[in-house]
Design brief:
The protein is of the alpha/beta class. The protein is built from nine helices and seven strands. It has a seven-stranded parallel β-sheet, with helices on both faces. The model has no long low-confidence stretch (mean pLDDT 97). It binds NADP nicotinamide-adenine-dinucleotide phosphate. The site of NADP nicotinamide-adenine-dinucleotide phosphate has 31 residues, from helix 1, strand 2 and helix 7.
């Protein structure tokens, strides 16, 4: 299960699920590079890695910006080598009922959560093709399959992540590159901390396991998909949601 000698890139690793994934892959021996949108976020990544003496670092990347992605990927390659494990985790919400949703709320979410996969994954493919080995793991959401009122933009982007992954999986399977999706349910991070206690209590009633998940419970599945144990799984979406939605 070791990922020694492999370079892994995790977008949005300054906190939450991304940081747990970064640390999980580092624990498996990968050299990990996490991305953040600010110096402060990059420092959080460096601190988290240093605390465990893990190999790797941080780069600044805005997944909505072509130039930022290109500059960051060049820095990763120069500093650590080309990544053969890519985890597209960075994501945002801008919730609103469709009747009130502004175009900017639609565009920004689609851009950050879906078009980012095109920007980040495409340039990383070349090294995976050369290595004849690669793992692409994309973070969707339970909302991408169930839908959620007030999140037409978010759910559309997360459903798109699944379609993207199934297509790319078929394009690169013969080269020993797998493309899979992890779809979290409600996980305790900054993204969900905006919910009131009452909203959280209501939410737990919809979850058979009656609790919110942890970032580590998502990271564990991502780490499995990156490991040799998942070598024959591709184009799959794994729901990690305490039973709140069963496909
Ligand atoms: N939490 C949940 O319940 C839940 C459920 C289903 C799916 N998910 C998905 O899981 C992923 C991680 O969620 P989370 O809860 O850990 O979120 P979070 O705590 O809000 O963290 C989001 C991460 O994404 C980064 N990010 C935001 N905008 C970015 C941009 N334009 N370019 C690059 N990075 C950007 C942030 O970087 P900065 O710190 O620099 O801003 C941060 O590292 C997301 O794709 C989310 O949709 C989460």
């Amino acid at each position: 299960m070791s990922l020694t000698d492999k370079v892994a890139l995790v977008t949005g690793a300054s906190r939450g699920i991304g940081q747990a994934i970064l640390l999980g892959l580092a624990e498996m021996g990968a050299t990990v590079v996490g991305t953040a949108t600010s110096d402060k976020g990059a420092q959080l990544i460096k601190n988290a890695l240093a605390a465990k003496s893990y190999a790797g670092g941080a780069v600044i990347m805005d997944v909505r910006d072509d130039n930022s992605v290109a500059t960051a990927l060049a820095a990763v390659e120069e500093g650590y080598g080309a990544p053969v494990i890519v985890v597209n985790n960075a994501g945002i919400t801008a919730d609103n009922l469709l009747l009130r949703m502004k175009m900017e709320e639609w565009q920004s979410v689609l851009d950050a959560n879906l078009t980012s996969l095109y920007r980040v994954t495409k340039p990383c493919l070349r090294a995976m093709l050369k290595a004849q080995w690669g793992r692409i793991i994309n973070i969707s959401s339970v909302g991408g399959v169930s839908g959620n009122p007030g999140q037409a933009n978010y759910c559309a982007s997360k459903a798109g992540v699944i379609g993207f992954s199934k297509s790319l999986a078929q394009e690169v399977a013969s080269r020993n590159i797998t493309v899979n999706v992890v779809a979290p349910g409600f996980i305790g991070t900054d993204m969900t901390s905006a919910l009131t206690e009452e909203q959280q209590a209501q939410l737990k009633k919809t979850i058979p396991m009656q609790r919110i998940g942890t970032p580590e419970e998502i990271a564990a599945v991502v780490c499995f998909l990156a490991s040799s144990g998942a070598s024959y799984i591709t184009g799959e979406t794994i729901q990690v949601n305490g039973g709140m939605y069963m496909q």
